[in-house]
Design brief:
This protein has about 200 residues and is of the alpha+beta class. It is built from 5 helices and 5 strands. Strand 2 and strand 3 form a beta hairpin.
Length: about 200
């Protein structure tokens, strides 16, 4: 080691500066370059974390916007349900549905030949009260019957119907068989009380 220091001391001034700069350069590249690589690694890690956080924020915003849309849809459905429930009485019976049918037939001047009440069917918040009817009529009166049923202030549906040509000589008449449903509100609380008794 002493020999190396003795050689360095014997060197002239420009060579000492050159060797000093050489060792400084090596030190810089070994120490500072390694630190720069660590900093670049940390910086790229921070950028990746930042992009992940931005993606999460974007997902959060999208989720919040979807939640707002769902809230609006729920409010609209609730409003529609209230409208339906207002038109849906809780106290009608099958005889009331038959009265509706008689009203439709009087409005359209149709003579109902048979009315048969069917078993009520429960569906979620409603109870369907079906009645099977049959009659003979013309196309025009049948159309008026459908319009009268559609425009009635209580909810009524005609899910099934059969139209056949009448066996009579009058080709204008049609033989009709259909099922008309009346609806009433079905309160699960009332059903729970009945089951408990």
């Amino acid at each position: 080691m002493i020999q190396i220091l003795a050689r360095i001391v014997s060197l002239d001034y420009p060579k000492v500066i050159f060797i000093g700069l050489f060792f400084c350069g090596i030190y810089y590249f070994l120490y500072f370059q390694d630190s720069a690589n660590q900093l670049e690694t940390k910086l790229s890690g921070l950028k990746a974390t930042l992009s992940q956080e931005e993606a999460k924020a974007k997902d959060t915003k999208e989720t919040e916007s979807r939640a707002e849309i769902v809230k609006k849809n729920v409010a609209e459905l609730s409003k529609n349900l209230d409208t339906v429930q207002k038109r849906l009485p809780g106290n009608i019976t099958t005889s009331d549905v038959i009265s509706f049918i008689e009203y439709f037939s009087r409005e359209t001047q149709i003579q109902i030949s048979s009315k048969t009440p069917l078993n009520p069917v429960r569906e979620d918040i409603t109870e369907k009260l079906p009645v099977s009817i049959s009659f003979a009529t013309t196309y025009a009166k049948l159309g008026k019957f459908f319009v009268a049923a559609a425009n009635y202030d209580r909810i009524t549906t005609i899910p099934k119907y059969t139209i056949r040509r009448s066996n009579e000589k009058d080709a204008q008449n049609l033989q009709i068989e259909m099922e008309i449903n009346g609806y009433r509100a079905f309160d699960s609380k009332d059903e729970t009380k009945k089951e408990q008794k």
